[in-house]
Amino acid sequence: MNGCLIPHTPFAVDFWKSRQSVHTRLFFLTHMHADHTSGLSPSWKHPIYCSDITAKLLIHKFDIAPALVHTLEVGESHILALDETGQETMMVTVFDANHCPGAVMFLFQGYFGSIFYTGDFRYSPEMFEHEVLANRFSIDVLYLDNTYCSPACKFPSRKQATQMIKDIIACHPEHDIVLGITSMYVGKEDMLVELAKTFQTWVVVTPQRLETLKLLELPNVFTTDPEAGRIRIALKYQITRKNMERWNQERPTIAIISSALYTGLNGNPYTNQPDVHIVPYSDHSSYRELHEFVSRLKPKSIIPVVKGTSERADMHCFDNYLESSAKKTSQIAESIPHLRAHQRRPSVNKQ
């Protein structure tokens, strides 16, 4: 699970283990991918803050009580109470994460300092056009999506990757296309719509995914009829040699796996399958993009969102971009008694 209890605060992000968060009052959800919602269920009883799109998906998938789901407008700053009396507050600014529908990044500012939590994101220079980031104020802690934090992770923009997929399809005019993706719930919708419009075909999806797509109010290019469309989606693990043989017995078929997973970090398991094409389409930032983002943000410290012992979790590659300044003490309201023992901001030691 990719989520964190934020130290010395009463809030958490993408963290749904109630027994480990007895002092947590506010829970934030960056987006609806499974590794960020693990632990959520209809029995959840605490307030959740997220984007409007994520709120719709959250209520639909987990049947969370609507009264517990609070939407935060993307691109805006919001004042939230950290205690029951409203004596202690914080400001939360919400940014588009450029990842999947509804995905956001959070900037928290309060007695604890300033904490920027990216969740999963694909960096874009336009992010710094927002007036809050353009002001270049100090960030104490950056929780960074380090999914592809390796020098080997070099991949194209999503626009370029989409064109690569178009070129492959154009070279196989008589073939059906099986498009392998990571999540059958939400993700890569813009690319799917563009492919449908370019090749004038329906995109075949599962009934469950179609229900989700209806919530997103996308163009009407999706169907559950397997005979209606030339392009159909499948999970990556379904792209096997056995399935490819079976599909090709029915009609000529190629598979395209749209994922950067096999770029740098992992070998290509489809090397000997000429009917399977890998396109490094990524909804996460590349290594170069991560460096550009951190160099512009200049935080005092970085904590990886994806935990592990691999080089992806090594944040020392960003040391040259860190802003160095002395730690400052902060005053915590008496209305948050369990935090009185922690009179400092979250640790700003390099991770």
TrEMBL record:
InterPro entries: DRMBL (IPR011084), Metallo-B-lactamas (IPR001279), RibonucZ/Hydroxyglut_hydro (IPR036866). Residues 1-172 form the Metallo-beta-lactamase domain. It catalyses: a beta-lactam + H2O = a substituted beta-amino acid. Its main location: nucleus. One of its GO terms (biological process) is telomere maintenance. It holds the Pfam family Lactamase_B_2. Keywords: Chromosome, DNA damage, DNA repair, Exonuclease, Hydrolase, Nuclease, Nucleus, Telomere. It comes from the Eukaryota. SMART domains: Lactamase_B. GO terms for molecular function: 5'-3' DNA exonuclease activity; beta-lactamase activity; damaged DNA binding. The keyword Hydrolase applies. PANTHER family: 5' EXONUCLEASE APOLLO (PTHR23240:SF26), DNA CROSS-LINK REPAIR PROTEIN PSO2/SNM1-RELATED (PTHR23240). Belongs to the DNA repair metallo-beta-lactamase (DRMBL) family. This is 5' exonuclease Apollo. It comes from Branchiostoma lanceolatum (Common lancelet). The gene is DCLRE1B.
